[in-house]
């Protein structure tokens, strides 16, 4: 049993190294002088949650809140450096309210595509909201903690 546990840890370590190598490769990949935008774009519909695959608190499946008019996401959940839930599925017209827990210091909420951005706050109870009108996948992160895995995604589906 002890052996199995050690094996599992070894596998996890190896996986982490592979992910890191992939991320570094991705960075240098942008040097290609093809002139055009990346063929991958902002991620296909087939893998809308790729962005949060390494996000803190993401358990592999999004929270389904489709059909609700309002949803709340904790800012600073888990160990303080996570969005809770990290992945959310909603319907068009839903208002998402990010609510600061007060854990983990100063956070903000920044959309990758620039469609929304909050101020910084470290205060419990601080809120920021955005209403998602259009179908799509909206990746976002906390600027000071993005590299630590404080990332989230909202998928808007009909
Ligand atoms: Cu943060």
Which helices and strands occur, and which strands form pairs?
Blueprint: H1 2-28, E1 63-64, E2 70-77, E3 82-84, E4 87-90, E5 94-100, E6 110-111, E7 127-132, E8 136-141, E9 151-156
Parallel strand pairs: 1-4, 2-5, 4-9
Antiparallel strand pairs: 2-3, 5-7, 6-8, 8-9
The chain binds copper (II) ion.
Domain Blue (type 1) copper: 71-156
Region (Disordered): 35-67
Subcellular location: Membrane; Periplasm
Walkthrough of the structure:
This protein is of the alpha/beta class. It has a domain at 50-156: Sandwich (Immunoglobulin-like), CATH 2.60.40. Helix content is 17%, strand content 28%. The protein contains one helix and nine strands, in the order αβββββββββ. The strands form two sheets. The protein has a five-stranded mixed β-sheet with strand order 1-4-9-8-6, with no helix packed on it. A hairpin with a 4-residue loop joins strand 2 (70-77) and strand 3. The longest helix has 27 residues, at 2-28. Residues 1-44 have low confidence and may be disordered. Residues 81, 104, 107, 142, 144-145, 150 line the site of copper (II) ion. Keywords: Copper, Electron transport, Membrane, Metal-binding, Periplasm, Transport. Pfam families: Copper-bind.
Which spans of ≥5 residues are poorly predicted at pLDDT below 50?
1-44
Overall pLDDT, averaged?
A: 81
How does the helix and strand content classify structurally?
Answer: alpha/beta
Separate helix tally: 1
**Helix content bin:** 10-25%
Helix-strand string:
HEEEEEEEEE
Radius of gyration computed on alpha carbons: 17 Å
Classified by CATH, the class of the domain at 50-156 is Mainly Beta
Count the beta strands: 9
Instruction: Give the biggest beta sheet.
Output: 5 strands, mixed
Beta-strand content: 25-35%
Q: Which ligands occur here?
A: copper (II) ion
Order of strands across the main sheet: 1-4-9-8-6
Net shape: globular
CATH architecture name of the domain at 50-156:
Sandwich
Tell me the CATH topology of the domain at 50-156: Immunoglobulin-like
Specify the CATH homologous superfamily of the domain at 50-156.
Cupredoxins -  blue copper proteins
| End-to-end C-alpha gap | 47 Å
